[in-house]
Amino acid sequence: MAVQPFPFCEGSLRGLGIAASGDSFQVRRMDPFLIALVVAAYLLAGFVKGVIGMGLPTVAMGLLAAVMSPAQAAAILIAPSLATNIWQMVAGPYLLALVRRLGAMLLGLFVGAWLGNGILTGENAKPAAIGLGVVLIAYALIGLSKVKFAVPRASEIWLAPIVGVVTGIVMAATGVFVIPALPYLQAIGFDKDELVQALGLHFTVSTVALALILWDGGAFDISLGTLSLFAIAPAVIGMYAGQRMRARISAESFRVFLYVGLLALGALLVVRNLA
What we know:
With about 280 residues, this protein is mainly alpha-helical. The protein has helices at about 10-15, 30-50, 55-65, 70-90, 95-115, 125-145, 155-175, 180-185, 190-215, 220-230, 230-245, 250-275; strands at about 20, 25. It has a two-stranded antiparallel ribbon with strand order 1-2.
């Protein structure tokens, strides 16, 4: 399925070497400014993940979707997201127990992705961009509100599949997979180490599901795949720098700054694409 450029930024996309070609939307050349933009986005996204343990896909998607279609931004996301989350998934003693406990949610995610398939990779990029903006706003408002949810263990049997399906639909429409899965994972009583490994599991599986959606929708090309692989290095460097800085900065203050930035970015995406 064709993926078309945003009307509001088509000219600037051509300047970056991104343009429509026939009925597809491809990166036609590796423009130095485009490479610099991807490097900067993933250095920052990796730094965020290094400081607070999550946020790389959301930050990277939000930044790059301001200058390209969400489908393209999601295609670039695949390799760095897998590279920075697989280790988090396997680095701990809880993986098998987490797979059993979260299995229904993760299966539901694939069902939701199938139900929403075609939105992100559709010919009109505006619905995906507006949806991404709304998700970024919701994610930021939940973070800023510091609302704490609690889910009884007995409720997980029916709630987990619902959370998975809804997360899958949102992911298939926007390219991000934090709502409502992240609040749910924070609400089911994991301790810190379990939660870190659970997030790694969720993000890894979600990235695989997202890759399948993009592949089915024809949103990959060689240039985007190359950019995705290229983005691994700045993501890892940024994550390492964030981990080194974690003890020197207030994680809580950094979270507030992050959420305010995502709120502004989400509002920008919505306003631009509704205009």
